[in-house]
């Protein structure tokens, strides 16, 4: 059976083949403190002794470089809380490391944010 163009978890006609709560094993609370802006990066360690699902593998594949939790959730097409649970599993087995977003003492430049928003709108 060919893999749907959106990946193994989605089907063009049926939509999502697996419910989000199934992906997280029914868990709704991550074990690691993760923010939507937390940066996640693969450590290169192969998870051993853990039964990780295909969603874990997909999430790990997105962490080659520092990637935000929000971006990973968007690529996986999963709710942020489910993505946080998956990433917590990967943190617990040493496959990824996380870093909290840096807090700047200076306020964000509004014109910079508006320029980013305009650029995103043009791409979508």
Automatic annotation (TrEMBL):
Identification of the protein by name: DUF742 domain-containing protein
Native organism: Streptomyces albipurpureus
């Amino acid at each position: 059976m060919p893999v749907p163009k959106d990946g193994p978890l989605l089907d063009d006609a049926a939509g999502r083949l697996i419910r989000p709560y199934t992906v997280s094993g029914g868990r709704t609370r991550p074990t690691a403190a993760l923010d939507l802006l937390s940066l996640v990066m693969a450590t290169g360690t192969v998870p051993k002794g853990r039964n990780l699902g295909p969603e874990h593998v997909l999430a790990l594949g997105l962490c080659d470089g520092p990637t935000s939790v929000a971006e990973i959730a968007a690529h996986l097409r999963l709710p942020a809380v489910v993505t946080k649970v998956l990433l917590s599993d990967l943190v617990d087995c040493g496959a990824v490391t996380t870093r909290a977003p840096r807090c700047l003492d200076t306020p964000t430049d509004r014109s910079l944010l508006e320029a980013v928003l305009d650029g995103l709108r043009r791409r979508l």
